[in-house]
Write a structure and sequence with these properties.
The protein is of the alpha/beta class. The chain is built from 8 helices and 10 strands. Strand 6 and strand 7 form a beta hairpin. The protein is globular, with a radius of gyration of 16 Å.
Amino acid sequence: MAGADWVQAVKPSTAYEWNSDQGDWNVGPVERGDGLHVVALDCGAKHNILRHLTQRGVRVTVLPPDISTDAIMKHRPDGLFISNGPGDPAVLDYAVNPIKGALGKVPIFGICLGHQLLGRAIGATTYKLKFGHRGGNQPVKNLDTGRVEITSQNHGFAVDQKSLEARGGIVTHINLNDNTVEGFRHKDLPVFCVQYHPEASPGPHDAAYLFDAFMEMMKTKKPVTGARLKQLQAMRE
């Protein structure tokens, strides 16, 4: 997988609107984003991520990842979402560049490959794991709350912690099996992301509060704080 670009095989060829919510699969109350508009860069997006966004009342426009920042901003988004996808993030400059251009212009949330691309966009590096993380019972510690979340994962690359912190990234989540970075936020910018899958269906649902945090960040246009993440997690419990 090192050096492989599989996003080209799964990305959409054109923009499209997403309208389906979670239906009977929704669990618990959610933070509403009624009237907000999210642009999602689809690198191979899991549909349940888009359902989580729609469930919260936002309009979702999905774009291919090899698009310019100007083309993204023409949609006048309240938030930018970067999806999961296959392959090595180190060779996806065409996806990193539009994200880099959007930094500071719009709140950004990323999942899995989106987490890695966001890391690269702020100047961090990525590397291939010796053993990839696969399965639905991976323990991740939320450093802001002190809670351990049981997560669903499927990735073989990670963001380098030292290079991330040197560029203003604050590690928020750590994998308890190998201490690799599982999430970060930025100290100055409204940016945060996780390596695992909070949208996993049928579960676990431990991390669905992250979508609520994205809704709030789009409303405030400010970076999400560790204290607020702790509150949002407690509210869902």
